[in-house]
Amino acid sequence: MTNQRISGRYRLERTVGQGAGGAVWLAHDDLLDRAVALKRIGGFAGSAAAEDAVRAEREARIAAQLGHPHVVSVYDLVTDDDGTWLVMEYVDGPALSAAVRDNGPYSPDEAARLLAPVADALVQAHALGIVHRDVKPSNILAGDGGAKLTDFGIARGAEDATLTRTGMVTGSPAYLAPEVAMGQQATVASDVWAFGATLVHLLTGRPPYHHPDKDNGPLAVVYRIAHEDPPRPEEAGWLAPLIAATMTKDPAQRPSMAAVRDHLARTTLVAEQTAVLPAVPVPPPPRTPPTAPRPERSARPSRALLIAGAVALLVLVAVVGTIALTRGGDEPSAGQTSSSPPPRTTTSATTQTTAPTVAQLVDFARRYVATASRDPKAGFAMLTPAYQRRSPGYADFWGPMKNPEILTISADPAALTVTYTYRYVFPGKGRRTETVTLRLVQVDGRLLIDGA
Ligand SMILES: Nc1ncnc2c1ncn2[C@@H]1O[C@H](COP(=O)(O)OP(=O)(O)OP(=O)(O)O)[C@@H](O)[C@H]1O
């Protein structure tokens, strides 16, 4: 107990955390007789007081605007002789980064249940044009009322490019989307990536792109984000397709936060009711006509990655400079500078000139239905990476399905499509009959499904 009173009203009790922006205190609001959290703004080396005040004001305004049950409420912003303080709702529980560190990783079910409401908070923020820009486990607090998102300090309107105009990149290194690591402006899609990266941390126990046997300093991590394929951890279980969809390098290919929320919420419902729901599709990207075989989306390096090299190095310097100010408690301490990480690998997609025959297409579709219902993982491997990313609920659909039986089937080699009507049984839901058209592409001479 310190007995120090802020603004004649808030009695400081003890520090409960230390962020890059200052200490966080548990305090008692004597006027309203309730516990509050006070965050001291400014006062750390290298910070400009005016800039901190602007950041705090922005945080207070945005949190007030959201008023979401899974966003930490900001009650007040007060200034006295000791400086400026942000007065917040006190969450009696650890940040998720601390929870993982102390108790180990979460199971996919636990992580989904915990993060679905946080995804909902981000849906609301995005609908208001607010990009959080620093979604990470240390900015999610786990209290009695569930997980709450905090620290909208660097959040700003989706159209506001002030920070990137000044050459700064904000956000915590391990959760930065590749395009942001390369110096582009943060968008709602980069929040989606950071949300996927947060899931990875909860499921594996460590931030994405961190390896126990490698240099995990900010420079090395940012380099890996820009140049390596995103992590696909085994621990992800049924969340694997969702992680693949959110942590896809091209921001245009990522699902919306609403699709992410719906997937987590619906699948959580499935787990709770032990019932079966069909796959929850993420919104498909703009389509090209299915009449021509389409090249793999992942085979095309994103524009951001094409400007690697010299530009990347310049940006990395800016990122690392800024990271010193924005690092939170999510990561182990920084190591040394990166040893030369391997160059980013890309898959090559080629289109075969000879079109497959009707018989080949029909045979492919029959094999696919048989494979997917027997072994969803093997069936999933028959999809293009782009379609895999758009199918986060794949295993939920094919896993429980029984006795699929193709009733009619036809193929169009010119359009590279196969249409079949099939009947199957869903435990608890009975028999269903459905007609599906698979759109196929040829990649390195192999047929893959690129949409349905
Ligand atoms: N409203 C709150 N109620 C209870 N504890 C809190 C609250 N806000 C923050 N904390 C605690 O204080 C710690 C530091 O929070 P803070 O938001 O300042 O920093 P950070 O997110 O860890 O880092 P950075 O400032 O770099 O984003 C949190 O990890 C959490 O444990």
CATH architecture of the largest domain: Orthogonal Bundle
Helix content: 25-40%
- Given the helix and strand composition, which structural class is it? alpha+beta
Give the SSE order as H and E letters: EEEEHEEHHEEEEHHHHHHHHHHHHEEEE
CATH first level of the largest domain: Mainly Alpha
* Ligand identities: adenosine-5'-triphosphate
Shape designation: elongated
User: How many structural domains?
Assistant: 3
Share in β-strands: 15-25%
Largest beta-sheet characterization: 6 strands, antiparallel
- Number of helices, where a helix is a run of at least 4 consecutive DSSP H or I residues: 15
Mean pLDDT: 77
Written description of the protein model:
This is non-specific serine/threonine protein kinase. Residues 345-354 have a biased composition (Low complexity). The chain is of the alpha+beta class. It folds into three domains: 5-89, Phosphorylase Kinase, domain 1; 96-275, Transferase(Phosphotransferase) domain 1 (Transferase(Phosphotransferase), domain 1, Orthogonal Bundle); 358-451, NTF2-like, domain 1 (Nuclear Transport Factor 2, Chain: A, Roll), CATH 3.10.450. The chain contains 15 helices and 14 strands. The chain has helices spanning 49-66, 96-103, 108-127, 162-165, 178-181, 188-204, 218-227, 240-246, 257-273, 303-306, 310-326, 358-374, 376-380, 385-389, 394-398; strands at 5-6, 10-19, 22-29, 34-41, 74-80, 83-89, 130-131, 140-143, 146-149, 156-157, 402-412, 417-426, 430-443, 446-451. Strands 1-2-3-4-6-5 form a six-stranded antiparallel beta sheet, covered by helices on one side. Strand 12 (417-426) and strand 13 form a beta hairpin. Helix 3 (108-127) runs antiparallel to helix 6. The longest helix has 20 residues, at 108-127. It is elongated and about 80 Å long. The model is unreliable at 159-169, 270-328 and 331-352 (pLDDT under 50). Adenosine-5'-triphosphate is lined by residues 16-21, 24, 37, 39, 72, 88-91, 95, 134, 138-139, 141, 150-151, 326-329.
